[in-house]
């Protein structure tokens, strides 16, 4: 029989290690999202290329002082 406490301790350590890596990747992705928005990439394109929803991107963009896109048809650049 395995030691259940040892199994739990080991699983928790793996979780914490990957949790840190995931948080770092999330922060790097958000920095890239904000840079893209500031650089003129349309929000719809940013949403398509990122793992975040449009609503979340808008909320973070506004909190970072990035204004909404102008109303009307959008031209998607490359």
Summary keywords:
single chain; 78 residues; mainly alpha; 3 helices; 67% helix
Strand content: under 5%
> What is the overall silhouette?
rod-shaped
* Oligomeric state: single chain
Query: Treating each run of at least 4 consecutive H or I residues as one helix, how many helices?
Result: 3
Derived structural class: mainly alpha
The tally of strands reads: 0
Low-confidence stretches: none
Largest sheet: none
Helix content: 55-70%
* N/C terminus separation: 59 Å
What number is the mean pLDDT?
A: 91
| H-E string | HHH
Structure description:
There is one protein chain. By secondary structure, this protein is mainly alpha-helical. 67% of the residues lie in helices and 0% in strands. The chain has three helices and no strands. The mean pLDDT is 91.
Write the layout of secondary structure elements.
Blueprint: H1 4-38, H2 43-49, H3 54-63
How would you concisely characterize the structure shown here?
The chain has helices at 4-38, 43-49, 54-63.
């Amino acid at each position: 029989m395995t030691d259940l406490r040892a199994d739990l301790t080991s699983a928790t350590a793996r979780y914490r290690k990957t949790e840190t890596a995931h948080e770092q990747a999330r922060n790097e992705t958000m920095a890239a999202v904000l840079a893209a928005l500031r650089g003129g990439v349309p929000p719809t394109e940013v949403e398509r290329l990122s793992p975040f929803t449009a609503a979340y991107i808008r909320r973070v963009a506004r909190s970072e002082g990035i204004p909404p896109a102008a109303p009307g048809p959008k031209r998607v650049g490359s």
